[in-house]
Amino acid sequence: MPRLPPHPDLAWSDEGAPIAAAFTDVYFSKAGGLAESEAVFLAGTGLPHAWAGRDHFYVGELGFGSGVNILALWRAWKASRASHAILHVSTIEAFPLAQVDAARALAAFPEVADLAGQLLARWPVRAAGPQRLWFPEDGFALTIHTGAAEAMLAGMTGRFDAWFLDGFSPARNPDMWSQALFARIAALSAPGARAATFTVAGAVRRGLESAGFAVEKKPGFGAKRERLEACLPAQRAGAPSLAAAYPYAACAPKRVAVLGAGIAGAACAQALARRGIEAVVLDAAPQLGAAPAAIQPG
What we know:
By secondary structure, the protein is of the alpha/beta class. 27% of the residues lie in helices and 25% in strands.
């Protein structure tokens, strides 16, 4: 088994958009990738309206690609979030783009150049597993999971409020649209969670319905005649509790005391602050990290 995830085999269209040669499919629409993200995925999951009044909102994505959906989502979040709110995004990609290729692709969207620059500056390294990027000034937490979708979902916990299903065409990439995958998405979803995708393939519709989603066709974007929106019932028998997925959410603390101002204590305080929880750090020493060194055995 290779230690590093595979690079995608890329071609480039005349318009400068990347094409996945292995799947003979584009990363984003020639008609306007950013507008497509907003029309298919944000509107398809009821955003930004769905996160209004929420302190935390959770989005899952299958198919990080060049990050265009993330930039559209991030821009909408910045424009509408409450000052204390946090958006948590977990996205999956099996064939990660190199930073130079992502920069070439994202140059097509000058309207989000600032956000693209921030994302590219912290572009994930080529390594399997999750990498978390924090943008605290925007209350934006992005976790990029590098690996096969089914394997990555199997190792995840959470209660996601919205899903962007953006793998390559089901006819060319069936592993991204399996029944097992849809069942896992449903298991990781909060009651009332919504999912959106560009495809209306029969296998996708049936797979989502078998997993418990109510599915509806909607007018498509650009050359695509239709797209799908899906929603889980607001109440589901057998759905896991919020506390089981996020233990710290069981009591929803507002203020936490951290005993010790060393590296571990400072890291805990930072993690709490990122989640909107006030941390009070207590230490006998007058400064952070100033506790005396442990006595070494003679």
